[in-house]
Amino acid sequence: MDSSAPQLIHWTENGEQHSARWRSESGMPPPKRVAIADDTTNADTAYRLACEGTALLWRGDYQNAKQLLQALARRADRSGKPKKSKAVKVPATPTEAFHLHRQAQSQRGRTLAMLLIPFDADYTIPLRRAPDVKQACNEAYGKGEQPFIASLRELLGLIGAHEWRRNGVMIPALGERIHPHYGVFSPVRGEYVALVNDVPLPANTKLAFDIGVGTGVLSAVLARRGIPRIIATDQDPRALSCAKENLALLGVNEQVELLKTNLFPEGRANLVVCNPPWVPARPSSPIEYAVYDPDSAMLRGFLAGLKDHLLPGGEGWLILSDLAEHLGLRPREQLLEWIAAAGLKVKQRHDVRPTHGKATDASDPLHAARAAEVTSLWKLETA
């Protein structure tokens, strides 16, 4: 968010008009209606107001606010389930199931984001029993400058991201941990990292490009595999900062050059690796761009530019799940057409089935698609 032109939230309290800076990493606009809430506010009233679009600025005990948020979540989850007396509408297609699921997630998120808390300029929360969240806020927002209002749900996300960053994610291919930063996609899908670690490299690979570096995990794997020089790109300053920290912790930072640019650096390489977002749908917040690729823009950009950045005999490695195919969002034929139109051909394809929890969770609305999902490393070369 541009701190030079902050959005403001306005409310009336004790008969006086107030305003403060509004902060939302999800891009949610400041609520137009704000009511004051405290320890006397019951969950049913709070949920009704939130559903109507009235935000609740909390003035009570912080721990009670967390309990209220949990109560709101329970009500939101119950309201999302069909009444027993009503016929359950079964989505006609996997695509319809996906869009209904996204719609329900979005509505739930908007409702739960209506519980707001105040912050002082130094990220102190002026509420009873409030925790010290200064480090988590500094990691996500940068240095504090002025008081602001944000949703409690967003704060809990910041705290969770801080814990992920501190504890890290074990990467078996490295035998070490990667520490994701707030807003940078965490490499919890280990199967795609294993593919990059196990698939044979092109002969005499002296230079590799890592397109969309994220946490730096794939650059680290390639460096550990002995590639002497890697140029890793990303447009997101958070990702570049995250990758820089992880590569230094893993001791491979001298092999990897980080570059802020869209897709490709200048020149050609023996190996060009890209793990774009897998689902061609519009993200509901900036943070979701790591998962959702509107109109497959990054995927198509990578394929269109790959030929001009490969050395003779070089390979492009596209790491992609076929979840979008099972959801009816992008057919396999379209992917193959884009590959051919870019002057490329498929040299090999290496497949692996995901092992994450959702792949076996029968209660997941998208279970059928997730159960059939396969992650592939497509080896591409010039046609």
UniProtKB/TrEMBL annotation:
Signal peptide: none annotated. Residues 181-281 form the Methyltransferase small domain. Keywords: Methyltransferase, S-adenosyl-L-methionine, Transferase. It comes from the Bacteria. The keyword Methyltransferase applies. GO terms for biological process: methylation. Residues 13-24 have a biased composition (Basic and acidic residues). Residues 1-31 are annotated as: Disordered. GO terms for molecular function: nucleic acid binding; protein-glutamine N-methyltransferase activity. The keyword Hydrolase does not apply. This is Methyltransferase. The lineage of its organism: Bacteria, Pseudomonadati, Pseudomonadota, Betaproteobacteria, Burkholderiales.
